UniProtKB/TrEMBL annotation:
Family of this protein: Belongs to the 4-toluene sulfonate uptake permease (TSUP) (TC 2.A.102) family.
Record organism: Niveispirillum cyanobacteriorum
Primary location class: membrane
Protein name (Swiss-Prot/TrEMBL): Probable membrane transporter protein
Keyword flag Cell membrane: yes
Transmembrane regions: 12-38, 44-70, 82-104, 110-131, 169-197, 203-231, 238-258, 270-291
Lineage: Bacteria, Pseudomonadati, Pseudomonadota, Alphaproteobacteria, Rhodospirillales
Length: 305
């Protein structure tokens, strides 16, 4: 069934969009990430303009993240206090990111910046995650995070320390706030919740228990993506509501199944699978930037009146 997207200005198969939303929603619940790292490139691959894909994807992330958080909340796997501190930084980063997005859009460089950002961030993070996960699996250990993070570094000397009883942490509030800030910038410019970066940062920098990371990450993603969607719609007019609704319906359903499946995976196995998918997306985008396109030019004829 074909449906017309007014902002993207093209017709798409509605069933395909629902399936994409469901698949990404499943990943959201499975790995505790918003899934935008995969959805935005997929939308670009089927012809949606990059700027519209980024702006619209934020709406889908809100729905998928809410669905995932509710499932984690029932299992008491959300640290609301730490998530709130991350949200403060996330709100600031989102505002800055939307402003930069609008500036790049006016300059005509936003499509290239989006693609290069994906290749750089996704390629680097996925390679590091995959290396660590494979090492942990080969050695047959659980997640060796907390023992490593107990070694004192300069991060432990930062001011404004706070206690987070749910995560059993006593750290500087600047750390989760900065992680949230980076996530806010990413959701505005790349249309992603930043979970692929937030999840490893919360594990390796903050030292959070793995069981709490997914739910807390999604809790913060809800508000930053909601703010990004509003600012993109008002400031840059890049939100296609028809596309967003289709993605939202599929995402909410898929997230519930993903959360159940995630309970059956060990931490290092989940991270390895996530890293492989992120790396595959980065490679596909890199190839598209290098390979010679079939149509080098696009000609638009003037409308005669």
């Amino acid at each position: 069934m074909q449906i017309y997207l007014p902002i993207a200005e093209l017709s798409v198969n509605a069933l395909l969009i629902l399936m994409l939303g469901g698949g990404v929603g499943f990943l959201s619940g499975l790995f505790g990430v918003g899934g935008g790292f995969l959805m935005t490139p997929l939308l670009i691959f089927i012809g949606v303009p990059p700027a519209v894909a980024v702006g619209t994807q934020a709406n889908q992330l809100v729905g998928a993240s809410v669905s995932g958080v509710l499932a984690h909340w029932r299992r008491n796997n959300v640290d609301v206090k730490l998530g709130g501190v991350m949200l403060i930084g996330g709100a600031i980063g989102t505002g800055l990111g939307v402003w930069l997005f609008g500036l790049l859009q006016k300059l005509g460089h936003i499509d290239l910046v989006i693609s290069l950002s994906y290749v750089l961030f996704l390629g680097t993070v996925s390679s590091l995650m995959l290396t660590e996960s494979v090492r942990a699996i080969v050695k047959g250990r659980g997640v060796p995070v907390r023992s490593k993070l107990h070694h004192h570094t300069w991060l432990h000397g930062l001011p404004f320390k706070m206690r987070f009883p749910r995560s059993r942490l006593y750290i500087s509030a600047l750390l989760p706030a900065f992680i949230g800030f980076v996530g806010g910038v990413l959701v505005a410019i790349m249309g992603i919740g930043g979970g692929f970066l937030l999840v490893p940062a919360m594990i390796y920098i903050l030292g959070m228990p793995t069981a709490l990371v997914a739910g807390t990450s999604l809790f913060q993603i809800i508000f930053t993506t909601g703010l990004a969607a509003f600012l993109q719609a008002v400031g840059n007019q890049t939100v296609d509501i028809v596309l967003a609704l289709l993605l939202l319906v599929g995402g909410v359903i898929g997230a519930q199944f993903g959360t159940r499946a995630g309970a059956k995976l060990r931490g290092e196995q989940a991270r390895a699978l996530l890293a492989l998918m992120v790396l595959a997306v980065a490679v596909k985008l890199a190839v598209d930037l290098i390979v010679r396109p079939e149509d080098l030019f696009s000609i638009t004829l003037p409308v005669m009146t």
